[in-house]
Amino acid sequence: MVPDSQTAQDRAQPGRLGHAGAYSVFPVALLAEGRPCLVVGGGKIATRKAKLLLDADADVTVVAPEVSEELAE
């Protein structure tokens, strides 16, 4: 529950706690083609992010102690 003293404007500011303690969303569009991109982690989320970056023709580096089988391919 959001405290009554917190306004909608406060909840919308990036980096501030919003509804139910979740951070506000900050959508970003990047041109990744040919750019070096770092993915930290080797689980499901990192795999999804790496695939999206590879689909965008980014130069992807993954740093993780272990990676999913799918990411290893």
Description:
The mean pLDDT is 81. The protein has helices at 8-12, 44-55, 69-72; strands at residues 36-40, 59-63. The chain is α+β, with helices and mostly antiparallel strands and 73 residues long. It has two domains: 1-28, no CATH class; 31-73, Rossmann fold (3-Layer(aba) Sandwich), CATH 3.40.50. Strands 1-2 form a two-stranded parallel sheet. It contains three helices and two strands.
Instruction: Tell me the Rg in angstroms.
Output: 17 Å
Approximate strand percentage: 5-15%
CATH architecture of the largest domain: 3-Layer(aba) Sandwich
CATH superfamily of the largest domain: NAD(P)-binding Rossmann-like Domain
Number of domains: 2
Q: Unreliable stretches, pLDDT < 50, 5 or more residues?
A: none
- Count of alpha and pi helical runs: 3
Which fold name is given in CATH as the topology of the largest domain?
Rossmann fold
Give average pLDDT, whole number. Answer: 81
Assign the structural class, choosing from mainly alpha, mainly beta, alpha/beta, alpha+beta, or little secondary structure: alpha+beta
The end-to-end span amounts to 43 Å
**CATH C-level class of the largest domain:** Alpha Beta
The total count of strands amounts to 2
